[in-house]
Amino acid sequence: MENLRKGFPVLEQYTYLNTAASGLLPEAVWEFRQEHDLDFLLGASVFKEKQAHILADTREMLGKFCDAAPQRVALVPNFSFGFNTLLEGLKENKNALLLNNDYPSINWAVESREFKISYAEINENLEQNIAEAFKRKQPNFFAFSIVQYLNGIKINLDFIKELKEKYPETLFIGDGTQFCGTEAFSFESSGLDVLICSTYKWLNAGYGNAFMLFKEEVEEKVTPKNLGFGSLQGKYKAQEGSFIGKFEPGHQDTLNFGSLLAALKLIDKTGKTKIYAQINTLKELAKAEFTKMNLLEEAVVKRTEHTSIFNIKGGDKLFEYLRSENIITSQRGDGIRVSFHYFNTEKELDFLVKKIRGFVKS
């Protein structure tokens, strides 16, 4: 198990259970960044002329990672830039479906525009609530987090695929920021039309990089308004007209997208099967332990499938106590959010449980 932790020096000083807030910077990504900027320092435009391949390589690696066509992969600086650009390409009188209390960057962006919005509740009956919302009024688009940032509730992607088959005209837009990098996923065989993901969390790629995946049919329903010199620069964009280029109107940062490429290579080297197996083991152990300790909300306990993100009962004092023990978590909603990535261990879970029990007794 130690080999999964190698290359993450921060783990030597903290029990880091906070990937849902911020992933780590692996040594492999840090080394790329050091070399990139040193070469830029010494080479300036001569260096930059040789860097065009980084963007194409990143696009292709993402296509391989998510099972998506590289010519329909857009490289954007963050989720919000990509999502807002997408929304600007939709007519504002459209019917939209959102999840109540979903991630603010989703709901606020839609609510700030002139869409006709309805909501489905996030609870143990999430899929049923969504299905009923579709029956009441079929939306033109449904935008949602695949995994909820507050408590780790994950929408059933098989359900989304069935729903897409039943309502093919609805545009399904998924936020994969808390999902991508945690389990195997095929975009092409999914029910999603668009996937948007910031990669500083579960992909450990650092900040300033994100990506969007599109099904071919999306171009018929969305007309983005952004355009710039960068829209037709580089491999894939000219061949595909300017659709993904409208999400990339300006210059692209080879430091940040190269960091994403380095992070994806590290995942490949570590082994996706090994990564997903470790996350799965930890999430099952954690849910069982937290349920036994009555730390979870009822909606999470009642759902059969969950992720490695948990919101446990506790206030400021418990949060501060855990921090004093070098256990890094986040306060979200009414509780304390803990999250387990592949570099975490059963020993760390046991340590967390021991400290919580000790705090409760004191």
UniProtKB/TrEMBL annotation:
It comes from the Bacteria. InterPro entries: Aminotrans_V_dom (IPR000192), PyrdxlP-dep_Trfase (IPR015424), PyrdxlP-dep_Trfase_major (IPR015421), PyrdxlP-dep_Trfase_small (IPR015422). Keywords: Lyase, Pyridoxal phosphate. SUPFAM superfamilies: PLP-dependent transferases. Residues 16-350 form the Aminotransferase class V domain. The keyword Lyase applies. GO terms for molecular function: lyase activity. This is Selenocysteine lyase/Cysteine desulfurase.
